[in-house]
Automatic annotation (TrEMBL):
Cell inner membrane recorded as keyword: no
Entries under InterPro entries matching the protein: Ankyrin-SOCS_Box (IPR050663), Ankyrin_rpt (IPR002110), Ankyrin_rpt-contain_sf (IPR036770)
PROSITE patterns linked: ANK_REP_REGION (PS50297), ANK_REPEAT (PS50088)
Gene3D superfamilies xref list: Ankyrin repeat-containing domain
PANTHER family listed in its UniProt record: ADA2A-CONTAINING COMPLEX COMPONENT 3, ISOFORM D, ANKYRIN REPEAT PROTEIN
ANK repeats (start-end): 3-35, 36-68, 69-101, 102-134, 135-167, 168-200, 201-234
SUPFAM superfamilies registered for this protein in UniProt: Ankyrin repeat (SSF48403)
Protein name in UniProt: Ankyrin repeat protein, putative
Protein source organism: Trichomonas vaginalis (strain ATCC PRA-98 / G3)
Keywords: ANK repeat, Repeat
Domain of life (superkingdom): Eukaryota
Length: 245
């Protein structure tokens, strides 16, 4: 079809396990790729077609096949919180810490989409909770960026580095501040995030609130918890100076 999907891709999409078995027994290519280089197993993982996924696996499908963005089926399961299929993939040896083109792992994907159940499954099976992508951001950075507060709580309770820094020296709290993720900011702060952590430009989370969104709510949360309102960045500017720009 226009997506270059085979009948086996369609069977995966609809969890048509009997049809999948017939196709495979008649020689269908179990690792066929569509226009995005996704295999039928990618489709099954995306749509949580767990029974069809089991059929593919029992017939020797490539568990860690990569699409054009280098995402594996486990990345797809994490993106869509397909927890049952994630469990099947993991129990059959899928790479928990496989990296896509951005060097993000399935746990990054789970955090990005607040797929909390899948995050728990990944962590309980040994996924690297502090894995870093190409920008040195961890899953907790992703959770903060997208206000995935439940997943943030899971990551923190399992030992995620709350003050991990990306390549620009930004912590998850910087991300929460920049994008006005006030609920996640509160979770980070209540669990000991450094209110006055400085990035490579010596800007604190409060600088980021002032510079990027001037959010009153997030600013109040930071200040009420002890953020330094007089902290100076590399240009010797405090947060109030940035607000007035």
């Amino acid at each position: 079809d226009k997506d270059e999907a085979t009948p086996l891709h369609c069977a995966a999409n609809n969890n048509s396990k009997e049809t999948a078995e017939i196709l495979i027994s008649n020689g269908a290519d179990i690792n066929a790729k569509d226009k995005d280089e996704a295999t039928p197993l990618h489709w099954a993982a995306r749509d949580n077609s767990k029974e069809t996924a089991e059929i593919f696996i029992s017939n020797g499908v490539d568990l860690n096949a990569k699409g054009k963005d280098e995402a594996t089926p486990l990345h797809c399961a994490a993106n869509n919180n397909s927890k049952e299929t994630a469990e099947i993939l993991i129990s059959n040896g899928a790479d928990l810490n496989a990296k896509d083109k951005d060097e993000a792992t399935p746990l990054h994907c789970a955090a990005n989409n607040n797929s909390k159940e899948t995050a728990e499954i990944l962590i309980s099976n040994g996924a690297d909770i502090n894995a870093k992508d190409k920008d040195e951001a961890t899953p907790l950075h992703y959770a903060a960026n997208n206000n995935s507060k439940e997943t943030a709580e899971i990551l923190i309770s399992n030992g995620a580095d709350i003050n991990a820094k990306d390549e620009d020296g930004c912590t998850p709290l910087h991300y929460a501040a920049r994008y006005n993720r006030k609920e996640t900011a509160e979770i980070l702060i209540s669990n000991g995030a450094d209110l006055n952590a400085k990035d490579k430009d010596e800007a604190t989370p409060l600088h980021w609130v002032a510079q990027h969104n001037n959010s009153k709510e997030t600013a109040e949360i930071l200040i009420s918890n002890g953020a330094d309102i007089n902290a100076k960045n590399k240009k010797w500017m405090d947060p109030s100076s940035l607000c007035s720009q």
